[in-house]
Amino acid sequence: MGACLFIFLYTDEDVTDCLAELFRQRGYGAASALEAGTVGLSDAEQLSFAADRDWTILTYNRKDFT
């Protein structure tokens, strides 16, 4: 999804979709779960999807990602 300044952020479905666009406007690489077509995947699948691409997952789901 193109070159980025620092890390590539992947926002799961617990994060508003527009946040990925805001990150891109500031020079970061970012994609939302909606954009990536991963809405509905389990937490483990979301994490695996991000890790397989060396992306950093951004979530509000502290219960399952600590």
Question: Which SSEs are present, and which pair or pack?
Answer:
Elements: E1 8-11, H1 18-25, E2 29-32, H2 33-36, H3 43-52, E3 56-58
Parallel strand pairs: 1-2, 1-3
Could you explain the architecture of this structure?
The protein is of the alpha/beta class. It has one domain (8-58). It has three helices and three strands. The protein has helices spanning 18-25, 33-36, 43-52, and strands at residues 8-11, 29-32, 56-58. The chain has a three-stranded parallel β-sheet, sandwiched between helices. The N and C termini lie far apart (27 Å). The mean pLDDT is 88.
Residue-averaged pLDDT? 88
Number of domains: 1
- Count of strand segments: 3
Rg on CA atoms, Å: 11 Å
Task: Please give a quick description of this structure.
This protein is 33% helix and 17% strand. The chain has 66 residues and is an alpha/beta fold.
Main traits of this protein?
66 residues; 3 helices; 3 strands; globular; three-stranded parallel β-sheet; alpha/beta
